[in-house]
Design goal:
About 0% of the residues lie in helices and about 50% in strands. It contains one helix and 23 strands. It has one helix at about 255; strands at about 5, 30-40, 45-55, 60, 65-70, 75-80, 95, 100-105, 115-125, 130-145, 150-155, 170, 175-180, 180-190, 195-200, 205, 220, 230-235, 240-245, 260-270, 270-280, 290, 295. The strands form six sheets. Strands 12, 13, 14, 17, 19, 22 and 23 form a seven-stranded mixed sheet that branches. A four-stranded antiparallel sheet has the order 1-21-20-16. A four-stranded antiparallel sheet has the order 2-3-8-11, with no helix packed on it.
Length: about 300
């Protein structure tokens, strides 16, 4: 089947299909990626720690988290310190895949200050089976005693803007057949220099021609385990979903009323793309299906 991508824009709402669990599972050390950067400041250093969810569809960053510096050998450097601002939600902060919480751990020094060198930061929180240790890019001096408080922590959730149409490149991969249904990886790549978020399962319809009338019902929008309704894309990163095209022979002819389609309309939040295809779909029942998002280009978890 030959595929060619055409561009087109139109505002299309993305209706909801299913309720999202009220409280996601806790973000465990194996479900997040933490990266630290350092910034020097008068009287001390700020360690900026970005804690990014790698859990589909989301995990819960529960507070109050504790932050403690460690030496290169793992010895504690100073006490555990908690963020100055606590989350209002007692369950913590929900982090969809790719979203981050940033902790700014700032060391302070006074006129009289006893310092020790630190090489890592340990993050602990109630309900987690183990701590999350984050290596610093280089060892730093940490004030552990003196006339000024030795450290302070500010923890915030990073806001990610919704992906604009101009930021995204859309493509379809080759199909994989399974039990009377062909699954196409529908791919979106972030071509911008900043991160953006995909929100909602796309609305997909078969069209008689490019720019023509719809053929049959819109694809069923499925919320399945392993797929995320919301996902953040770093610059250059891709997300994908599995577009299922059911064989029209799966239904009685009278129930299906098959017809040919020459294009697919893929509606994203705030935009619409059209892809040329050649396929047959049912006009009386939904023979197409689409799911949430997964990272990468395969359309599969």
């Amino acid at each position: 089947m030959s595929l060619a991508l055409l561009g087109g824009l139109a505002s299309v709402p993305a209706p909801a299909t299913a309720a999202v669990p009220a409280v996601p599972p806790a973000c465990l050390p194996g479900h997040v990626r933490a990266v630290a950067t350092l910034t020097s400041r008068p009287g001390g250093t700020t360690a900026r720690i970005a804690i990014t969810s790698r859990e589909i569809p989301s995990c819960r960053w529960a507070g109050p988290a504790g932050y403690q510096f460690l030496s290169a050998t793992g010895a504690t450097v100073g006490p555990i310190v908690h963020p100055r601002a606590r989350p209002r939600d007692p369950h913590g902060v929900a982090l969809p895949y790719g979203f981050s919480v940033v902790a700014r751990v700032t060391t302070m020094s006074g006129v009289r200050c006893t310092t020790r060198r630190a090489a890592r930061v340990r993050i602990t929180a109630p309900g987690r089976p183990g701590p999350l240790d984050v290596a610093l890019p280089r060892s730093i001096e940490v004030c552990v005693g003196g006339t000024t408080a030795w450290t302070a922590v500010l923890e915030t959730r990073v806001a990610v803007a919704r992906c604009a149409t101009g930021q995204l490149a859309l493509s379809l991969g080759p199909p994989n057949g399974a039990a009377g249904t062909s699954y196409y990886p529908l791919r979106l790549r972030n071509t911008a220099r900043v991160a953006c978020a995909l929100s909602g399962i796309p609305v997909v319809r078969a069209l008689r021609t490019v720019g023509g009338a719809p053929v049959g019902p819109a694809a069923r929008r499925l919320r399945l385990p392993g797929y995320a309704p919301t996902i953040a894309l770093a610059p250059g990163a891709s997300a994908s979903t599995a577009l299922g095209v059911g064989d029209v022979a799966n239904w009685p002819t009278a129930s299906c009323a098959p017809a040919g389609a020459r294009a697919l309309s893929v509606s994203l939040p705030g935009a619409r793309r059209v892809t040329r295809v050649a396929l047959r779909v049912c006009t009386r029942v939904a023979s197409l299906s689409v799911r949430g998002w997964v990272p990468g280009t395969t359309g599969q978890p």
